[in-house]
Amino acid sequence: VSRPRRADLVLVGFGHVGRRFASLLGESRPALLAQYGLDCRIVGIATRRMGARFDTRGVEIAHDGPAAAHPAAGSAALQVITQLARSSDADLKIVVETTVLDIAAGQPAIDHVRAGFAAGCHVITANKGPVAFAYSSLNREAESAGVRFLFEGAVMDGVPIFNLVRDTLPLIEISGFRGVVNSTTNHMLTAMEAGETFGAALGRMQAEGIAEADASLDIDGWDAAAKTAALANVLLEAGISPPAVHRIGITESDAARARQARANGQRLKLVASAARDRSGKVSASAKPMALPATDLLAGLEGKANALILQTDLLGEIAICQLEGSLTQTAYALLSDLVTIAKQPARRGAPAR
Ligand SMILES: NC(=O)c1ccc[n+]([C@@H]2O[C@H](COP(=O)([O-])OP(=O)(O)OC[C@H]3O[C@@H](n4cnc5c(N)ncnc54)[C@H](OP(=O)(O)O)[C@@H]3O)[C@@H](O)[C@H]2O)c1
Fold this sequence. Notes:
About 40% of the residues lie in helices and about 25% in strands. The protein has a six-stranded mixed β-sheet, sandwiched between helices. It is an alpha/beta fold. NADP nicotinamide-adenine-dinucleotide phosphate (NAP) binds next to helix 1, strand 2, helix 2 and helix 11.
């Protein structure tokens, strides 16, 4: 029986997703050990306000944050990543990036990912920023560092999109996609069709914790545009960033449009799409569209999301998520961890 492989993790960002991931990792410990021979420990945590905490014996995860945290002078994130690289002797060293999305440039998450690679660590993230703004360069950097860059949680929480394509669609060529990938706007459009005003629907989404307190990322279409760029970069090698996505958000006037569409047997949906034309150029958009009732995307109620992939050998295939949750996003990170664990250890290579 071979000895379990040890994985040391540092969490950069410890908000909703980071905390749920930490608890799910605890719940999944026996299964990770039994099924993948993986023994995981969280050895570091960094957040903007709490600073850095690192202990090779494992940090104690208090409910309200890292125990005895102390604000760091420079970047707490870079501090724990450096400590992971220098002080851990684990077989696998993994940075788990769950800081907030910055829609202007994907920072500082991109710097955190780069620092992870430079330190010889694998990086997994639920943040759309790095893959939406810098996928191809980060992917190259990960390859040359001999580490993995995985981001299943960036789009549609834990529903496998990137894993599906990478692991189960060999030789398939994807020429485009269409989807509904933002829950807040889909929920609002559904509510407005039924007569609720824009303001009331938005207020309810905020009260239920589905929309952010600052919901502009959702309603202005930026979240959908970032997901569109991420999907286009990975599935179509588009090499774009969110500002290149033709973006139209939803406004008060869409309440009447949604009701009118419904009356005409259609549904108004914020559709994220991208396609490669014959010259190889990828165009991408995220905008409200009235869809015929027969369209699979038209049937998505409330918080449901779906993505339809246009492929050469399988025609159109779709994957659907009826409702997202924090557990699903945390599961995406867990599945990325398992992807790394399944990689055979490199013989003669330094432990990574
Ligand atoms: N929530 C979801 O359901 C969901 C679903 C899919 C994907 N995501 C993505 O997952 C990520 C995290 O979401 P969340 O809901 O967990 O956000 P959150 O609750 O706001 O937590 C964000 C965390 O990032 C930390 N942070 C921000 N800037 C930092 C920096 N420069 N260095 C170190 N830490 C920093 C924050 O620290 P402080 O608290 O100290 O400021 C906080 O711990 C986002 O990118 C989001 O888009 C979220």
